[in-house]
Amino acid sequence: MVIVLFGKPGAGKGTQAPRLAAALGVPILATGEALRAAIREGTPMGLAAKAFMDKGELVADDVILGIIKDTLSSAPYANGAILDGVVRTVPQAEGLQRVLGDLDRRLGAVLVFDIADSEIVQRVSGRLTCDKCSAPFTGRTPGESCDVAGCQSGLGGGTLMRRKDDEPAAVQTRLDVYKEKTAPVLQWYERHGARIATIDAVGSMDEVTNRAKHALGL
Ligand code: AMP
Fold it and tell me: What global pTM score does this model have?
């Protein structure tokens, strides 16, 4: 089953994605993470995307659709996926539909994380991210070591830092971009008869996970 996690930047999609992926037994496709990995590796795609990402602007649709197509066609994704931060524009929604049609798969649901802008600004300003595994943290100090087990053993241990696009000016840009380009995607899905489930994204991690699982019938 393919599930699209939909909502403003900082709504908690990245926190909930691994929990829902584990519950469903499918992998995650997170375009933001794929792009950050490309930047770390210094690939041409990463170098081209970095300036847009640092400012909080969107990366071009054809780049994103390339990632979507390559990833969903690969073997680990044969049984479905949790899409985190993917489908941020109407052309991406149309492109995803085409890719799923070509692969003879279908969209299971769009899970909408509902949250006010004021809550986002407060949340993101306190968020740190591991520079190696990208796990999000709150209530920690920049420079501390990442304590995610797989990160320490697999990648040599990351350091907690503020993402450049979590700086206040970039957060405001990301919220503006969401309103202008991403919010209309939900109307597109409504018009195309997708199953849309909306959950309150404010609460403890476990509360939100339970709401999400309930909304997806898990
Ligand atoms: P995220 O980790 O999902 O917050 O994404 C970080 C940044 O990567 C975004 O602010 C965009 O610059 C870029 N990005 C990630 N996913 C997409 C997408 N589906 N479409 C366009 N840009 C994206």
Answer: 0.89
